[in-house]
DNA sequence: GACTAATTTGAGGGTGCCCTCAAGTTATGA
DNA sequence: TCATAACTTGAGGGCACCCTCAAATTAGTC
């Protein structure tokens, strides 16, 4: 198979890297809907070159988002390693939302399931099992209310994504959500 | 002043009504960003006529949104009329969010301050005093946590608007937010 | 019925973003 | 250094939405 031995040209590799760097930066700053020609311009490359390397927008997403979502693995692992089930659950929430707050593309990808590509879905679903464990653990210890559902978590993510979007204090909001608004309890 | 006595032509009045009806319907269904030419088409009128009656998008918003926001007055009044301060506070939240859930344009206008026109801001601010009263009352009775701020309400509105947007169960989410996720309390 | 001012019309120009492809450039290996 | 495949380029066509304005139509008046 000689096709395998063909090496990419060096300029092509360099341009690809520049495109990824530019896209990563712009996605993080402004979300997943930055115009492609702006990415090309930032990378110092023509729009045609961008399309050579990434024929569709999803190709660009798939080259960037899954790697970033890898951070989720660590967050959920650390949460599960926490002795106290409730603290672990809270640590997970703070970890994920902190990630979303720092990177608008992750806010889009996690909370709004924006790209919705198979590849990204895979990364997310890889964590679902772990997260379910986290939830079960917190329920078993009596800390988390019994009726809590995964959908509640999804909605919390959506809600917080909007608080972040509005530049609100998401930690404060999370705290209120965890403890409730009622005074005595 | 003879200019005052000039009457609008009947077809113009009719077309204006049709435009308002079409815009109201489309706004409620799909939010405030429906294309103007779609509104004109729905009204059975040309795009030029739309611009005759409503030179800017804001003119259209101002002709529709403030009236709808009038419902807020009733909601807050009914909430204040409720004997139990906490029940009143909750009734207000349910009233407002119910409104947002039924009408996407109100979801945009209330929670995301989308049009941000002076006229709409006026309608909203008219209620602020009443809402502050509602909050103060609920705090005084010891039902609402002392550290609750108006900003917390704004963020809750933003959060719920997103839950509604994702077709989530906003009542469930509000319930969780009011009572917290922790099991015992 | 004819006049006129009010109103409507929709083609057309502008913008921003998408995507393509024929022509030009360049890395690479012989 | 040349040949060639690999790569880059950017003008250009498409689309969706915005907004304008000269020409056509029509309601209201005499």
TrEMBL record, chains A, B:
Keywords: DNA-binding, Transcription, Transcription regulation. Residues 13-72 form the HTH tetR-type domain. PROSITE patterns: HTH_TETR_2. It comes from the Bacteria. GO terms for molecular function: DNA-binding transcription factor activity; transcription cis-regulatory region binding. Coiled coil: none annotated. Residues 35-54 bind DNA. InterPro entries: Homeodomain-like_sf, HTH-type_TetR-like_transc_reg, HTH_TetR, Tet_transcr_reg_TetR-rel_C_sf, TetR_SbtR-like_C. It holds the Pfam family TetR_C_43. This is AcrR family transcriptional regulator. It comes from Glycomyces lechevalierae.
